[in-house]
Amino acid sequence: MANYKEEAIILRAHDLGEADRIVTMLTAGRGVRRAVAKGVKRTGSKFGARLEPFTHTHAVLHEGRNLDTVVQAETIRSHAAIREDFGKFLYGEAMLEMIEKSLHEGQKVSRVFDALRVTLEVLEGETSSPALLLAAFELKVCALIGYRPHLDKCLHCGRDLGSEERAWLDLAGGGMSCRSCRGGSENLIPLSQEALRLIRDLLAASMAAISRWEKDDRLTREALETCFRFSESFLERPLRSRRVVLRYLDGNLN
Ligand SMILES: [Zn+2]
Question: How far is the CA of 175 from the centre of ligand 1 (A)?
Fold first, then answer.
């Protein structure tokens, strides 16, 4: 089997035996791939820290039957500032875990790669609310893989929700329900008009713009938890990092 070159972002790395590591990465052209990096834990390894989570790299991989092998890795951006800031690390880790668990191995979604690349660059810089970046990232990735939430009108009767005081996110329907139509549906999340407006804005705005927004902590939490529940409604596995993020956010709320 042949070698191939890919731009990639490292999602996760775990030990394999004494010296090797298994690296899970999102590649620009081939989706999520898993590869073994041999001898990476030995001092003087040619890989050094180049295969740490968050690293954006040019990699050469050798294609294997089950697992690829990392032949070479040149760092484009290490994103060390994310790994060194506890808060940014938690939000960033939730982004990486979402990618790993929402894409099937090999599913090619180059726009998801671009979304992750841009979001990590913004997260690494000055940002007033990494929690809003994470909420926006969740929504944008959902939209890119075919689960764009419908937020403007009631799914059932088509009523414009702009003037309603409250609306309900219908997880089974993938959109909003008005007060009169919500009866009978299960899995509804009540949303304030403010939170609904924020979620719409997060879906539409660029990450660079969102990084400068400052919103009330409780509103931010409402939006983030809603985004989590929306994406979890179609992911098969629960995401561990999200519970950690919410606990961290609650610690900052008082
Ligand atoms: Zn309705």
Answer: 11
Give the distance (Å) from ligand 1 centre to CA of residue 147.
20
ipTM over 0.85: yes
Q: Cα of 34 to ligand 1 centre, how many Å?
A: 45
Ligand 1 centroid distance, CA of 153 (Å): 8
CA of 174 to the centre of ligand 1 (A): 14
Q: Could you list which residues have their CB under 5 Å from ion ligand 1? A: 154, 156-157, 159, 178, 181
Domains of the chain: 3-78 (2.40.50.140), 81-251 (1.20.1440.120)
pLDDT averages per 10-residue partition of the chain, 254 residues:
94 92 95 93 82 96 94 96 95 96 82 97 95 97 91 92 88 90 83 94 97 95 94 82 91 62
Please state, in angstroms and rounded to a whole number, the distance separating the CA atoms of residues 32 and 73.
16
